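Quick note —
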Amino acid sequence: MVGSPEDEARLQALVAVLCETAPDLVAMFRRCAQGAVLHADERVLIANDAAAALFGARTADEMRALRVEDLVPSATRDAHASKRVDFARAPSRRLMGMARPMCVVARDGRVIPVEIGLGPTTLAGEDAVIVTMRDLRERMRAEEALRQATRLDTVGRLAGGVAHDFNNLLTVIIALAEELEGKLREAPEALGLVREIGYAGGRAADLTRQLLAFARQQPNNPRTIDLNEVVRSFARLLGRTLGEGVTLRLDLAPGELKVTLDPVHVEQVLLNLAVNARDAMTSGGELTVRTATVEGEAADAAVVCLDVVDTGCGMSDEAIQHVFEPFFTTKAPGAGTGLGLATVYGIVRQGHGDISVTSRPGAGTTFHITFPASYARVETGSLLPPARHLGDETVLVVEDDATVRQVMARILDSAGYAVLLAASLAEALAVTRDVDALHLLVTDVVMPDNDGVRVAEALRRQRPSLPVVFVSGYAQSVDALSALGRLIAKPFTTDTFLSAVRDALDVG
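Predicted structure written out below.
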């Protein structure tokens, strides 16, 4: 907005005076990294390139045609004008050198949060103000990301605690349902009901595993794997999951992409993202799984990238803000639990990785995951549990939950083992004091008075070769536990439990 010719001439004269009397100051002003403008009589005299970029002007000179009010959102212009009057009355005492937040408006109408600093000055007898502006958008995004991470971490701790308690209950439900099933084979109607109980228990166990994955408390067995090989091996199941209307495309980087992860967890990530993508592509589409390596500044700082890209309906910005929260879903009621992406988030964070999502309504969705690259040799190993065997050895069970303790005792007793029971370390030492032959320790990891590692260490001091099976509904330090024994997760089936017991006894 241009004023009268007289005003324009006067302001141009002020600019000329400034450029002539303080060329170094003008040069420094123009090079300032923050946006900066100099105004007098509410008109912009000089703006630097950073201010031009902030406001969307092509050049800094374009801003000389603007009034200060043109830089302020229309909704706050009256309040801003009042504050300018207050500042003009006492410029040396108010706001000088102080930073304060406000909003400015770009040429395209975007409202931009900034932090401004005001400095009064005089040019050829005219009052003027230097305004510096720091763009706050990046800081606000970082603060929102921190708030989101804190919120997810809080919910995750709650979810982990709830899931642990449920796992104890489900261990009992599943084990007793399996025992009843064996006893009711000649009663078809009752047998069907018991199988329904077992099925419901299995479904509930899946949900608690998802909660634990979100809370980063899921039992974890990481090893050095080739991410490309895991993706290739799992691609056939992914294709069946997607159905006929969706095409699966693999775009994998050449060579090995080594990461230290539990391969089962990688498959969980792929499966959850594939199911989510399938539901977003109701009319068909394409799902692309892409891998790559990005080198870091240091020689050993590379990251391995895993992108899962769909051509589905996409998500709004609001949905993206909540997409990793447990029980949040954009699906119709009854169409999903809202735990799939929460599970993915937990697994990625547990694997020391990062995950982000980009999406727009109608333009598909991309999940971008990164993990630290590994430089160790790829490990191979079977994921299948050993076959179930019976035995007659003596097994000590240490478990603070009485119902779970009794269930484990019933399973072991039915398989022929002699069973000793304890609820704590003190009881374990007491019941084994006069026992000559103790062949195996089965212990819960998390107990009120002592953890399972201390129980194992205490008994190992008396019986150095005693094998140990740890049982837990929480994730533990696999390195610490693997040095002492095996780990199985609650809830478990009878076959899984007895297989772990037999394997520990046979292998030691």
